[in-house]
Design brief:
The complex is a heterodimer of chains A (387) and B (154).
Chain A lengths: L3 E5 L11 E7 L2 E8 L7 H5 L4 H9 L6 H16 L5 H29 L3 H22 L8 E2 L2 E2 L5 H27 L1 H7 L7 H7 L3 H5 L7 H4 L20 H25 L16 E9 L2 E9 L5 E7 L1 H13 L7 H6 L5 H5 L17 H10 L1
Helix pairs in contact in A: 2-3, 4-5, 4-11, 5-6, 6-11
Chain B lengths: L2 H11 L6 E6 L2 E6 L4 H11 L4 E9 L3 E10 L2 E10 L4 E3 L9 H11 L2 E3 L36
Parallel strand pairs in B: 2-5, 6-7
Antiparallel strand pairs in B: 1-2, 3-4, 4-5
The chains are: A alpha+beta (387), B alpha/beta (154).
Chain lengths: 387, 154
């Protein structure tokens, strides 16, 4: 049978983001895959070298809507190293809380989407209902459900009150319990196993060779996590472990993420107990001494790295950002090669791709008209269904 | 291994002269290497401390040269190799034969800074649109006379 090559996208092929995939199939078998990105390129790196350090903080927050906190954290970490600013301990613990909150909300979002991709809508509904717990906590702490703007140069912007701490504890206990249930579903539910087991298989060696990061790498048996490889914040003061799986497939990636949610809850509970009282901000100079630095953090999707070069002024000479999705793209194409056409969506989604991060743009306003208008809920739903 | 030990070992294995080397902490090393030997040096770094992770490649226009920085993680140390490519040369060997993970990062640099990666297996654009004008590189700092982007067909 002749091989057939066809494009998918760029209009939201599987995810609510534009990318253009090209598959070559032989019957139901995918023999080759290629990807074209860049549809949401907005020159954030270039813009960063035209704004001062404080303004760049807001820009970096908008690299991604899901892992916004990881980006500000990494950016702040780099700037603080350059300027030799010591962040108060309490602020470091609050940053850790936000970092783990974000991991929880993102992994749960992913689990829901994974359920949706395999037609398991019940899972999607339940997970997203439970995700509201963490969204409420994020809103309580930062005032916002996304783009929390918690991190600032030299510390964090809001403190955690004892009342907040109590509500966080309650939420973490509930989320922990629910996540255990999801781990149970993922390992026992027949439909889920059939659609994820041995799908999108990629070995640890291939992952290593192609530079994969985060849960994708860990689900192929490689215990690599920036939180232990290059310890930052106060991760050395809490008990937790790097989760791995030897399954190398979508099921493995699911398990690693669900277990990381449970770990994140435990980390947050410990942080609330050991967090010292004190300042939450240190003074950050307007001008940063000349130099260059790299900073890495383990975002929910994997390693984020920032390179910042300072020429001694109040504007960075260069800000380079590498997001986890770009590192995981080569391996995602390996995942769909040799698989079934029907497995493309879940295999591809299993890296938790984020093209806005990768292309570095903001998806906020109405992309077609470019204007910022208010919509009623029914309008929004209608728009969602049309898309 | 500490960063300074790693720098020493790189120096030992490399027959030529390193341009500069410094460490900023126990786990952070910066080495400047001649651009002509970058593939060779990347190759023995990959062999000496497996598994080596390439985090990304940064391109930086310092006016006279395009600095290419390879951010490796080798044996727990963040190892940053710098190869400064003069603008009138504007080409450097690809490291993809020895570091397969570099494919997309090198494409990004070719796309945004216009440095040719000699021998790259897939030198297509990465981020910029297909109708972006040839010879216009957004991250270069000497070509700001034309602030308008490509023609909007939308």
């Amino acid at each position: 049978m002749a091989k057939l090559s066809f494009p998918v996208g760029p209009q939201h092929p599987a995810l609510k983001e534009p990318e253009n995939l090209r598959f070559t199939v032989d019957g139901e078998l995918v023999v080759d895959a290629d990807i074209r990105i860049g549809y949401v390129h907005r020159s954030i790196e270039r813009s960063c070298s035209e704004r001062n350090y404080v303004q760049d903080m807001y820009l970096c927050e908008r690299v991604c809507g899901i892992c916004s906190n990881a980006h500000t954290l990494c950016y702040a970490h780099a700037c603080e190293t350059l300027a030799d600013v010591e962040v108060p301990e309490r602020a470091q613990y609050i940053r850790m809380l936000m970092h783990e909150f974000e991991r929880i909300h993102s992994h749960m979002l992913w689990l829901g989407v994974a359920g949706h991709e395999i037609g398991f809508e019940t899972l999607f509904m339940y997970v997203w209902r439970d995700r509201e717990i963490i969204q409420d906590i994020l809103e309580m702490v930062s005032g916002s459900r996304g783009h929390y703007a918690m991190t600032t140069l030299g510390g964090v912007r809001y403190d955690i009150t004892p009342e907040m701490a109590d509500r966080i504890r309650e939420g973490m206990m509930a989320l922990r319990q629910r996540s255990e249930r999801y781990a149970d579903i993922a390992t026992t539910e027949a439909t889920f196993l059939k659609r994820t087991s041995d799908v999108g298989v990629v070995s640890g060696e291939v992952c290593r060779n192609l530079g994969a990061v985060g849960p994708v790498l860990r689900a192929s048996g490689v215990a690599w996590d920036i939180r232990t490889a290059f310890p930052y914040l106060k991760y050395d003061t809490v008990a937790w472990q790097v989760r791995t799986s030897e399954l190398c497939d979508v099921l493995g990636r699911t398990l690693v993420r669900v277990l990381e949610v449970i770990d994140a809850c435990d980390i947050c509970l410990q942080v609330l107990d050991i967090m010292p009282e004190g300042d939450i901000q240190a003074r950050f100079p307007r001008k940063v001494p000349e130099g260059e630095v790299t900073a890495r953090v383990e975002a929910q999707r994997g390693e984020v790295i920032y390179y910042i070069r300072s020429d001694g002024s109040d504007v960075p000479a260069r800000v380079k950002i590498r997001t986890p999705t770009l590192a995981n793209l080569p391996v995602s194409l390996e995942m769909v090669r040799g698989g079934q056409v029907a497995d493309i969506p879940i295999a591809f989604a299993s890296i938790d791709p984020c093209f806005s991060c990768t292309d570095r743009m903001v998806v906020l306003d109405d992309a077609r008209t470019g204007d910022r208008r208010q919509m009623t809920w029914p309008e929004l739903v209608k728009l969602g269904r049309e898309r | 291994m500490t960063a300074s030990e790693l720098v020493e070992q790189v120096q030992e294995q490399y027959r030529g002269e390193l341009i500069a080397a410094r460490t900023s902490s126990e786990v952070d090393a910066w080495i400047d290497v001649p651009p002509a030997d970058v593939q060779q040096i990347a190759g023995f770094i990959m062999d000496a401390w497996p598994p080596v992770h390439l985090s990304t490649i940064t391109g930086y226009d310092n006016g006279r040269e395009i600095e290419i920085l390879y951010h490796f993680v080798a044996d727990g140390v963040s190892l940053n190799l710098r190869a400064a490519v003069p603008k009138d040369v504007n080409r450097i060997d690809t490291i993809t034969p020895v570091v397969p993970a570099a494919v997309l990062y090198e494409r990004e640099i070719m796309d945004l800074l216009g440095v040719t990666m000699v021998g790259h297996p897939d030198p297509r654009r990465l981020s910029l649109p297909e109708d972006w004008p040839e010879g216009d590189y957004p991250l270069r700092r000497d070509d700001v006379e034309d602030e308008e982007g490509p023609e909007d067909n939308g």
